[in-house]
Design goal:
This protein is an alpha/beta fold. It has 3 domains: 303 residues, no CATH class; 241 residues, Restriction Endonuclease (3-Layer(aba) Sandwich); 121 residues, no CATH class. It is built from 26 helices and 16 strands. The strands form 4 sheets. A 6-stranded mixed β-sheet has the order 8-5-6-7-9-10, with helices on both faces. The chain has a 4-stranded mixed β-sheet with strand order 1-4-3-2. It has a 4-stranded mixed β-sheet with strand order 13-14-15-16, with helices on both faces. α1 runs antiparallel to α4 and α8 packs antiparallel against α15.
């Protein structure tokens, strides 16, 4: 039990010393192999479920940080004793205690200098830095690295400074990921074959075997398995020559990559967490004799960008990174959901004076809805990642600045501000349709999940003044996944509407933005009427991405059991309607699609059933059929109307639908409405569309 007022640093150091005592007899790589095996090496992709997984990369990093303060890998005993739960269980408990105490200490240090919403953001960042390895999947970062740093001049500069470029480095880290499982399989085979004598010699020194303990052949296999498990760490290691062959790069290039990412034994830093940070930045342990141990898979990938950016430091690279992210984001959205228009570098100019107020990095128009993108590629300083005051400075230059730019763009697009939009050439930007609705997306390369899912906490602070609309803040990696899953532009707009509404509600917490998007797909983001949300009760959602993880593993060929791509649970008639809206794009197609997505599945089934029944009645009776679904309890109330007419009414179908809409508005008052007009034998979901919705 931790005493009130306890010295947290002393408590941490006491536990670190106990870890050193427990580890002292053992070879460091053999011990690390046990933790690597239990925390990551043997995870089966077909069985991996994030919300149930108990493995933690920080355990391996912390154990490594304790062990690399030795002068070498050697333990006190010449032959490593068998490592079992009697050693691993108390060690793991101590590591978790050390991490918990450090998290508590970081929170206390933040509280001493900052309170309120800004302090809460810093506390979350400080804790997250202990846990988070990278903001996405390694394959995503590998693609970013080869694209961001692939330009000829940048690649040439990296080769001059580091001895390798991004393509070389990615080939090497991908090869390490392939070598490890091959080595494990080879070790198990060798234990029963060529290295069986070695295994039995080891067993004779460290394992007590009773006389007559089973048939000799069975006993030898069991002892060989114990040897292999104890020596697992050796199987996880690799050499430069192996890496060169597996990555198909020259030996000197492989050596340069490894040298840039390696850390030796004999570290003298007293703070174990600073050592752990160093290991995260240089995740290969140099164990001598040309061999290296990869501490946590993927850490090598996430270490590369900082390495490259340090080599290319300067204004020219910073401009390149910003422009790259702007174009990458716009093109990714456009590839997933084809826009009516896409513009880059739209300038915001004060009308009359020509004063330049800022720039929209990318603007996509879907019907009467505009998506304005602010891409922020700036990297966080290490002190910001740790939750220091530098985090607030980083948010000032990313979230706040982007929000202000987005607010100016929103006003200009809606005609509410004396601001003109011009292209990079200086020519006025003239959009093909008047914009009624505007949504802002801020895309970052660095992870901001300590604040993004709960930006409502910052509303009214210096970071997000009350006059600024809170944007959707998402990493490139998260946006990439969202684009994979989106089916229609209206779906994105509807998600952004519901996501914005969550900022008004407050009280809702999640780990990152993918949790909110997956929750949207699975059940919608409707919280207004939830009984448990009344008052100021805070509600926290745990990981929602299990289905996404399974599909990504299957889609990347890592998982053998098929996993379907996550989709919104819509009936076939609704999907057909949204497909047709997206294909034809009549005026009002985005709000019409959003309205269909807004209502419940039961209401959609009712709408389709009524329309289908009306088609049959028109065919038999020859008279116009009309219907209305009202949603008076919604905020604001809205209506969906439909009208089915005989085929001969084609010339005046729109007039009939207009008359129905006017009639219902007179009856129920002015409110948003979507009206579908159909001919009885038409194969289309609708023939005429009328939409009435106030500006957003």
């Amino acid at each position: 039990m931790l005493q009130t007022g306890a010295d947290l640093t002393a408590e941490i150091n006491e536990r670190v010393r106990e870890l050193e005592r427990i580890f002292a007899p053992y070879d460091a790589i053999h011990m690390l192999g046990q933790f690597a095996g239990s925390e990551w090496a043997f995870r089966r992709p077909d069985e991996y479920v994030e919300s149930e997984d108990v493995g933690a990369a920080y355990v391996v990093e912390t154990v490594a940080a304790v062990l690399v303060r030795r002068l070498s890998r050697d333990g006190e005993q010449r032959v490593t004793p068998f490592i079992d739960a009697r050693v691993l269980k108390p060690s793991r408990e101590l590591v978790h205690e050390v991490i918990a105490l450090e998290g508590l200490g970081r929170g206390q240090r933040v509280d001493a200098t900052s309170g309120g919403a800004l302090g809460a953001a810093r506390r979350r960042a400080a804790i997250q830095h202990l846990m988070l390895r990278g903001p996405g999947w390694p394959y995503q970062e590998n693609e970013v690295l080869t694209d961001l740093f692939g330009r000829h001049d940048l690649a040439q500069r990296l080769r001059e400074v580091l001895g390798f470029d991004a393509t070389d480095a990615v080939a090497c880290v991908e090869a390490v990921a392939r070598l490890v499982p091959l080595h494990i399989g080879q070790l198990m085979d060798d234990a029963r074959g060529t290295r069986l004598p070695e295994a039995l010699t080891w067993a004779s020194e460290v394992v007590s075997v009773r006389e007559g303990a089973g048939p000799p052949a069975v006993r030898d296999i069991a002892l060989a398995s114990l040897w292999a498990l104890t020596h697992l760490g050796d199987a996880l290691c690799f050499t430069v020559d192996e890496l060169s062959g597996a990555a198909a790069v020259p030996a000197d290039v492989a050596a340069a990559v490894v040298a840039a990412l390696a850390i030796p034994f004999g570290q003298t830093e007293a703070d174990v967490f600073k050592v752990a940070e160093a290991i995260r930045a240089r995740p290969y342990l140099d164990i001598g004799d040309g061999a290296y141990f990869p501490t946590v898979p993927g850490n090598d990938t996430w270490a590369l960008r900082a390495l490259f950016e340090a080599a290319l430091a300067g204004e020219a690279y910073s401009r390149h990174r910003g422009r790259w992210l702007e174009r990458k984001t716009g093109e990714r959205l456009a590839a997933a959901l084809s826009p009516d228009e896409l513009h880059f570098g739209v300038r915001l100019v004060r009308a009359g004076s020509g004063e330049r107020l800022g720039e929209v990095d990318a603007l996509l128009r879907y019907g009467d809805t505009a998506i304005v993108v602010e891409a922020k590629g700036a990297a966080q300083r290490l002190s910001a990642r740790r939750g220091g005051e530098a985090l607030i400075d980083h948010l000032e230059t990313t979230v706040k600045k982007a929000s202000e730019q987005a607010a100016l763009a929103q006003g200009a697009l809606r005609g509410e501000a004396a601001i003109e939009l011009t292209l990079s050439t200086g020519a006025p930007l003239t959009l093909g349709e008047q914009v009624r609705e505007v949504h802002a997306i801020v895309v970052t390369l660095d992870d901001l999940s300590a604040v993004a899912p709960v930006l409502w906490e910052l509303a009214g602070t210096t970071l997000l003044p009350t006059e600024v609309t809170i944007p959707w803040v998402v990493t490139w990696y998260q946006l990439d996944h969202v684009c994979d899953l989106l089916q229609w532009p209206a779906q994105l707009v509807h998600f952004l509407r519901r996501r914005s509404r969550m900022n008004d509600i407050g009280r809702l917490h999640a780990v990152d933005e993918l949790d909110w998007f997956m929750l949207y797909l699975n059940q919608g983001l409707y919280f207004e009427e939830d009984e448990h949300l009344r008052g100021n009760q805070q509600v926290r959602y745990l990981s929602q991405t299990d289905e996404l993880d399974a599909w990504v593993l299957w889609n990347r060929g890592i998982r053998t059991t098929p996993a379907p791509k996550p989709r919104q649970g819509l009936d076939a008639e609704t999907e057909r309607l949204l497909d047709y809206l997206t294909e034809v794009r009549p005026p009002g197609w985005i709000p019409a699609g959003c309205t269909v997505l807004e209502i419940s599945g039961d209401a959609r089934e009712q709408l389709h059933a009524q329309v289908n029944e009306a088609r049959q009645r028109v065919a038999t009776r020859g008279s116009v059929q009309r219907g209305t679904l009202g949603f008076g309890e919604a905020t604001p109330p809205f209506m969906i109307l439909w009208l089915v007419a005989p085929d001969e009414a084609r010339p005046y179908l729109q007039s009939l639908l207009r008359a129905l809409l006017d009639e219902r508005l007179d009856e129920h008052g002015l409110q948003p409405a979507v009206a579908f007009g159909l001919l009885a034998s038409s194969p289309r979901p609708f023939d005429v569309l009328l939409v009435l919705e106030p500006p957003r």
